[in-house]
Amino acid sequence: MSNSNDIEKTGGLLDNDVQYHVQLKQGDVSDFVILPGDPGRVEFIAEHFDSATLVADNREYKTMTGKYKGRSVSVTSTGIGCPSTAIAVEELANVGVKTFVRLGTSGAMQDYTRVGDKVIATGAVRFEGTSVQYMPIEFPAVASHDMVSALIKSAQKSDLTHHIGIVQSKDSFYGQHNPEGMPIASELLQKWDAWVKGGVLCSEMEAATLFVVGSYRKLRTGAVLLVAGDQAKQESLTKEEYKANMTESINMILESSLDIEEGS
Amino acid sequence: MQTVQKVEQVKHLPLKFGEVARYVIVPGDPNRVPLIADSLDNSVHQGQNREFNAYKGTYKGIDVSVVSTGIGCPSTAIAVEELSYLGAEVFIRIGTSGSVDKTAKKGDIFIATAAVRDDGTSKQYMPIEFPALASHDVVGNLIQASKDLGIDTKVGICQSKDSFFGETEPERMPVAPYLDYKWSSWKKGGVGASEMEAATLFTLSHIKKIRAGAILAIETSDKEIVQDMTKIVLESITYMEGSKNVE
């Protein structure tokens, strides 16, 4: 990717300083990082590496670094929501990360997005408050073309049921699950209907900011969202199904990392 | 099941059912339509109404239409609505643009992955938080075609505006500070090109379940560069038609 020398570093921290929140310095992480929301999922993801060591654990940010088929890879949790995701992305970029692939769970928004399906995000609806503190709202939250292509290739190779398209990023979890109960119910319901008509595949809480901050800092970004629940159909994955589907999603991302040249 | 009776003649385009190809090239300028159609075999001028000039021909045996949108998202929305109603499924804009963050310079060819929605039309379709994305598949085929043809391109986000002179002479506009602030954000945020139609084309493509892309010349409308862009687009259409047959 192009250099980001012209980017002002966060908080005046130098590249080789230990970053304030993620507690990482240059050399602690791979250029390729998987970003789950849940710190409790970090260890499970790293179990799919060939080797991994814990390198930092502070607040909601837990990081493990290792190798997959000879390629260096890391996993860092972002916590729930775009505010903590922006911090993770900024600080990871400061210590040399070039490629960020979010791995998360999501709620189905279309009839054909079923629990267990994998959604490869090409872009995200910016229904959140963080990315607008970076870029005006007219700017599109878009994943990197080459990362999306690598993820599609990997999903096809493993014959996984997947969808490619736009996801919705929101700030209020319960605003999605109980819109009628919210004072701004009419806006929530009206917009939801518009996203569905626009073909938005699933709803989650971090991708939009990852993509916008990625564009600004010239980083490579992508996201894989496992459809874990379907409000309309009242369906969700069992614990065992969830684990098996997560494993498929993790392996899909790890295989895609082999298509991204190390350090690029 | 009740079938809806479709009208044969649409309101603005000089076209009827059966007259539009699955693949449509959509330049802004009606005068550029014959230049693009020159690269097709057996091209026929189907008519012109207002800024909508229509040709149809074939390329390597594949039907291709060329229809101008006029300048701006309002007339582009009309063209896209009516073309998709008549059966078009893949839309590729060929256009000219200004340079924004200077990664793409005068004379470069720029493939848009997405567009900044600095237009008024797309907001009358979708809330502003929705991203105006080109089809991943169309973008991939345009990139592949340009590589195979040995024509250099840049790939990135473009900005779609409604006011041409708001970009070229922002200082004389009453909203100059607003225009300056936005423009500096696009520059810093990594926007490569500035044009006037893509945001609505892309936004509409998600609603109409069609596929769309855009290829833009930076700060030039030379005949040669239009021909290069046409070559890339036509080649990409052969790839898309090929993969359709495989499916």
Provide structural commentary.
The complex is a heterodimer of chains A (264) and B (247). Chain A is built from 7 helices and 11 strands. Mean pLDDT of chain A is 94; it is low at 1-7. Chain A starts with 31 loop residues before the first strand and ends in a 7-residue tail after the last helix. Chain A is an alpha/beta fold and 264 residues long. By secondary structure, chain B is α/β, with parallel strands linked by helices. Chain B has helices at 33-37, 73-85, 136-149, 164-168, 176-189, 198-208, 223-246, and strands at residues 23-25, 41-49, 52-59, 62-67, 90-99, 109-118, 132-133, 154-161, 191-195, 211-218. Chain B has a 5-stranded mixed beta barrel, surrounded by 4 helices. Chain B is globular. Chain B starts with 22 loop residues before the first strand and ends with a helix. The mean pLDDT of chain B is 95. At the A-B interface, β6, β7, α3, α5 and α6 of A face β6, β7, α3, α5 and α6 of B.
Question: How is the secondary structure organized here?
Answer:
The complex is a heterodimer of chains A (264) and B (247).
Chain A: E1 32-35, H1 42-46, E2 51-58, E3 61-68, E4 71-76, H2 82-94, E5 99-108, E6 118-127, E7 141-142, H3 145-157, E8 162-170, H4 173-177, H5 185-197, E9 202-204, H6 207-216, E10 220-230, E11 235-236, H7 239-257
Parallel strand pairs in A: 1-4, 1-5, 5-10, 6-8, 8-9
Antiparallel strand pairs in A: 2-3, 3-4, 5-9, 6-7, 6-10, 10-11
Helix pairs in contact in A: 2-6, 3-7
Chain B: E1 23-25, H1 33-37, E2 41-49, E3 52-59, E4 62-67, H2 73-85, E5 90-99, E6 109-118, E7 132-133, H3 136-149, E8 154-161, H4 164-168, H5 176-189, E9 191-195, H6 198-208, E10 211-218, H7 223-246
Helix pairs in contact in B: 2-6, 3-7
